C-alpha cells in the first residue's frame, strides 16, 4: 500500500526448472529488497525462538567464554533480533559478539564472517557486506549462508550478474526458504511473475517452521497484491494468520488490503493496532500515508514525527532510501533529493533509481529525472509505483502519449497501489486523455 515500491531482491535472468538448479543464466541482465532477501516474518513464534537461542548462547558463554562458534551464533541472533524488533541497539551487541568470535579464531571462522556480512547488510553498509561475504566465501565456500550475504550485498549495489550467481550457488547448495525467496525476487524484478510465484510455492513447500510457513504465505500475498490480485492476496494473508494467529506480517498485509479496498476506517484501525504493537518504519510510513490520504493531516504528521525519531535512534544504520521516500510523501522535496542523491552515490539499483527520479521530479528537474526513471524501468519489473513515477515525469516533459502508456501500466498492474498516489494517477491520466 505504501507509495514506496515493494522491497524484495535482485538481478540478471533466471528460470524455474524442476531440479535444484532453479536459476539458469540467460542473456538478459537486470537489477535489484531493500533490501536484502526477506527473512522470516516477525512473529511471536520467531521471537520466542530467538529469545531462547540468545539465552542459551549467553548461558554457554558464561560457562565457556572461549567459544568462537557460540559467540558467532549469538552475534547472528542479535542481528535477527534487531530486525524483528526494530531496535538498532542490537547491532552494537551483534558486532561485539561477532568480533569476540573473530578475536578468538581469526582464521577460517566462516560463521563469524557470515555474521559480520549479515550485520553490514542490516546496517545498509553494502560495500562492507560484500567484502565480508567474499572473505566468508574464501573460508567456507560450500556454505549456503555465504551466498545469501553476497546475493543481498550485490543486489543492493546493483551488480546484477554477481547477485544472480550468488543466488544460483545458494540454490545449488541448499534449496530452501532463504534461497527460493531470493530466487523469487530475482524473477519478479524482471517481470516474470508466474515464475516468481512458483519459486515462492517451492519456498512454502520447503518451510519447516511456523515462522517460515507464515512468512512464505505473506510473501505470496505481497506478490499477489503488488500485481493487483487482491482476492489472492487476501487468501495468502489469511493463511499466514491461520498458521500463526499472532503473526505481525500477515496483519500488515490485511491492513494494506483494507486500504486498497477502500475500507479506510478499518484500515486506519488496523494500522493503528499494528504500529502500536510493532512500530517498524515501513508500517509507520504506510500508516502516515494512509492518514494523509484520508485527510487526517495532523495525525499523519504525528506518524511522520515518529519516523523522524526512529531515524535519529537508528544513527549510522538509518536507511537513506526509505527516508528519501518518506520525505517525498510528506512533501519535503529538498530533503528527498538530498537523501536520494546520497544513496545513489553508495548503490545504484532500481529502487534507488526510482527514488532519485521521483525526488528530481518533485524539485522540477524532470529532464534529469527521466534518465533515472528509465533506469528503474529497464529490468521489466511490473511495479506500479515505478510506472506511476515515470508517467508523471513524462507528463511534465510534455511527452503525453508515453505518459499515458506509463500511467495506464501503473493502474493495470495494481489500480490500488497507493491510497495517496493511485488517485493522482487516475486524475493525471484523465487530464492527458482530455488534452488538458
Descriptive report:
- The chain starts with 43 loop residues before the first helix and ends with a helix.
- Among the domains are: 262-318, no CATH class; 319-436, Serine Threonine Protein Phosphatase 5, Tetratricopeptide repeat, CATH 1.25.40.
- The protein has 22 helices and no strands.
- The protein has helices at residues 44-63, 68-85, 89-104, 110-122, 126-139, 144-157, 160-173, 177-188, 193-206, 210-226, 230-243, 248-260, 264-277, 281-293, 297-314, 320-329, 333-346, 350-362, 366-377, 384-396, 400-413, 422-434.
- α4 (110-122) packs parallel to α6 and α11 (230-243) runs antiparallel to α12.
- By secondary structure, the chain is an all-alpha fold.
- 72% of the residues lie in helices and 0% in strands.
Low-confidence stretches: 6-41
Mean pLDDT: 90
How many beta-strand segments? 0
Helical/strand content category: mainly alpha
CATH class of the domain at 319-436: Mainly Alpha
The CATH homologous superfamily of the domain at 319-436 is called Tetratricopeptide repeat domain
Beta-strand proportion: under 5%
The CATH architecture of the domain at 319-436 comes to Alpha Horseshoe
* CATH fold field value of the domain at 319-436: Serine Threonine Protein Phosphatase 5, Tetratricopeptide repeat
Number of helices: 22
Radius of gyration: 21 Å
Distance between the termini: 29 Å
Large-scale geometry: globular
Q: Helical residue percent?
A: over 70%
Major sheet, described briefly?
none
Sequence of secondary-structure elements = HHHHHHHHHHHHHHHHHHHHHH
